[in-house]
Amino acid sequence: MNKLRVLFICTQNSARSQMAEEFLRQYGGEAVEVESAGMEPAGAINPLVVQAMREVGVDLAHKKPQSVFDLFRAGRLYDHVITVCDSGAEGGCPIFPGLTQRRHWPFPDPAKVTGSPEERLAEVRRIRDLIRDQVRSQLGEVFALRPVAE
Prior knowledge:
This protein is α/β, with parallel strands linked by helices. It has one domain: 3-Layer(aba) Sandwich (Rossmann fold), CATH 3.40.50. Helix content is about 35%, strand content about 15%. Strands 2-1-3-4 form a four-stranded parallel beta sheet. Helix 1 (about 15-30) links the parallel strand 1 (about 5-10) and strand 2 (about 30-40). Helix 1 (about 15-30) packs across helix 4 and helix 2 (about 45-55) packs across helix 4.
């Protein structure tokens, strides 16, 4: 069985694309090969994202942002490439060549949340839940997959 190959891209690969990657990996199981990358990778995953994902049983502490250009140079090909930059930054979202399906799912940038530490974490949780719900809702329609985990 050929695995469905999916790449999630955002600017820094430090939050949204990492969350989407992990949720699709969780829900798609063995039927999917999923990665994430960024145009300008950050040095580390956003700590608030690490904390919010840990709360739902996903450990991102070991993950490192990677460059979309490194994947391209390695000759990686994907069935779906999904950008997850917010609507205001859509023009700056990278385009990955050689793809079958390209989609844009706009999500707010966790790096731009403001307020007290509690308010910022609450907003990152909200973004996490938006991403999780989008991935789950698109399993059948976009990816032709049935969830293996809930």
